[in-house]
Design brief:
By secondary structure, the protein is mainly alpha-helical. Among the domains are: about 80 residues, Tetratricopeptide repeat domain (Serine Threonine Protein Phosphatase 5, Tetratricopeptide repeat); about 80 residues, Alpha Horseshoe (Serine Threonine Protein Phosphatase 5, Tetratricopeptide repeat). It has 13 helices and no strands.
Length: about 270
């Protein structure tokens, strides 16, 4: 039990550091927790599986996609064997597997896991639960990336209604969903609506996470692209630069998203 308590304490400490954007310390704490779990606890135990999932979530944000995929696969295998294929914890890892494939630029690969997470969660808690809405929002991101914009939009609008009703207008999940809707609006050719949604998403994230949290980067980058296309290259450069700083100050210069941001910054500069 002593080792379990230590691992759980490290997990909670890491989660707190991640919540305030300190990804470097969060990763060190998660890796320490995993090292203790793998040395002193059963490799097929629930505690070890949960640490692997938590570390993988962090690595998705910091660009460690390959290791994250391995950790998710190991966690999913254990949780399925120990809890059953229809358990909500399995749905959580499947949700994460789908999101990782999307982030890594392979959205179609993530669709089966994302759809399965929706099925499990609906059966466990009902379609109107915020967790079920989060699964639908994740699936919507994948569908949008594979060109199925109408289905994606319907899922996102439904998820947004659940989040606003259950969690409040200024909740982080509302901001994430607004950001995804804004990106979709831009793809569908409605930049004015996209901008309104993205600015609201950014404002919520800044209030709930702070001005320099890494999770702001995606919203800043998408908004920057829209502003460039609208002709405001000055603000576009400011937004892309701000997003780049969020990665670079954390030593994440080689994150895959950094190359995209730099390319967009160059486009904005050349359009001036």
């Amino acid at each position: 039990m002593r080792h379990v308590r230590r691992v759980v304490w490290l997990q909670r400490s890491a989660a707190r550091r991640r919540s305030v954007g300190d990804t470097a310390l969060a990763e060190r704490l998660y890796r320490r927790a995993l090292a203790i779990a793998e040395r002193h606890l059963p490799d097929d135990g629930l505690t070890t599986a949960r640490v692997r999932n938590d570390l993988a979530v962090l690595l998705k944000y910091t660009g460690g996609f390959e290791e994250a995929a391995q950790l998710y696969a190991a966690a999913c295998e254990v949780l399925t064997a120990r809890l059953g294929a229809d358990d909500p914890e399995v749905a959580t890892v499947l949700h994460n597997i789908g999101g990782l494939a999307h982030a890594a630029g392979r959205p179609a690969d993530g669709e089966p896991a994302a759809r399965r997470s929706v099925e499990i969660r609906d059966a466990a808690v009902g379609a109107e639960h915020p967790d079920a809405a989060a699964d639908r929002a994740a699936l919507a991101g994948i569908l949008a990336a594979t060109g199925r914009h109408d289905e994606a939009r319907a899922l996102l609008e439904a998820a947004l209604a659940v989040f606003e009703r259950a969690l409040g207008d200024d909740h982080h999940e509302v901001a994430v969903t607004l950001g995804n809707l804004g990106a979709l609006d831009a793809q569908r050719g409605d930049p004015a609506l996209a901008e309104r949604r993205l600015r609201r998403a950014l404002a919520i994230k800044e209030r709930t996470l702070g001005q320099d949290h890494l999770e702001l980067a995606a919203t800043l980058g998408t908004l920057g692209v829209i502003r460039r296309r609208q002709g405001d290259t000055t603000e576009a450069r400011e937004l892309h630069t701000r997003a780049l700083v969020l990665y670079e100050t954390r030593g994440l210069e080689h994150h895959p998203h950094v190359a995209v941001l730099r390319a967009n910054l160059d486009r904005a500069a050349s359009a001036t």
